[in-house]
Write the structure tokens for this entry.
Amino acid sequence: MAMTETKTKPDLPVQIAEAIKAAIISGQLIVDERLPSEAELSAEFGVSRPTVREALKRLAAQNLIRTQRGATGGAFVNRLRFEEAYGQQITTSTLLLSMNEVDFETACEARFTLERACVLLSAQRRTGDQLATMRAEIHRQGQPGLSDEAFCASDVAFHRALVDGASNPVLSYQLAGAVEAIEPLMNMITFSARSRARIVELHTEIADAIDSHDAERADSALADLSDYTIKLAQEVLRTRSPKD
């Protein structure tokens, strides 16, 4: 595994981790392949074993490698799965939204534009279990006494099932941030003004369309939900604005 010398780099563990990561991405190191030992990596990079160990910890934190003990142990290239990467995608999306102060309409536009691409596929490919999840969440949303926090969680679960119904793991991964990072942000702004009955009505319309494989109707209902959400936010933000 030939890698470039990193001795002159300021943050050695980061540089070593990036070099190994690049070898994994390029296919130079394949899934389940054993990495060189700490001693071998130390000699290859010209650094101490603790420095190599720190680099490996960084890779393990990204689920790029796993470690095994015993005579046949060591560090091995991990098979990264979409489901395991959801958390990182959600965290990154949440940080980007908060740090860059993305306005509500921009976030809402991004989320619903992406989700409408999924709903067309979901209408054709959804499984019985995914449809059942949507129905269960709609029922939960209609329960009296449900807290705002629980309603928000159910809202996310409904749209997560809708997205997963597209049966496309790449889309599900990309939408993880849109649904599970943007949706709570949207709910935080609109929860005090929204009509739960209207949300349930729109969710039911979407689920009915998905149930009957009617992609056009499902897309139309999701567009109505988008319009309703944006108008709600505009009213809330207008009320909060200082009066002249």
